[in-house]
Amino acid sequence: MLKKKFYKLSMQDDSSMSDFLFTIKELLVQITGVGDVIRVEDVVLIVLNTLFDFYKNFVQGVSAQETLPSFDQLMSKLL
Hints:
- The chain is an all-alpha fold.
- 65% of the residues lie in helices and 0% in strands.
- It has five helices and no strands.
- The mean pLDDT is 90.
């Protein structure tokens, strides 16, 4: 159920970046708390794919990197 909620995440028009990332982080804590695992690459790709068009250049830059950043690294770049 938690994983399903995670994979359906999207950034809402009225939410701030910090609120959006905090929501993701909370869900990840809950998911790992029940013993489930989501790959770091999946987390990063989901975040990148749910960002507004405003972040298009940022998403392209991160996606072009040889290695994707960790979720924490991505968070620090977005905040």
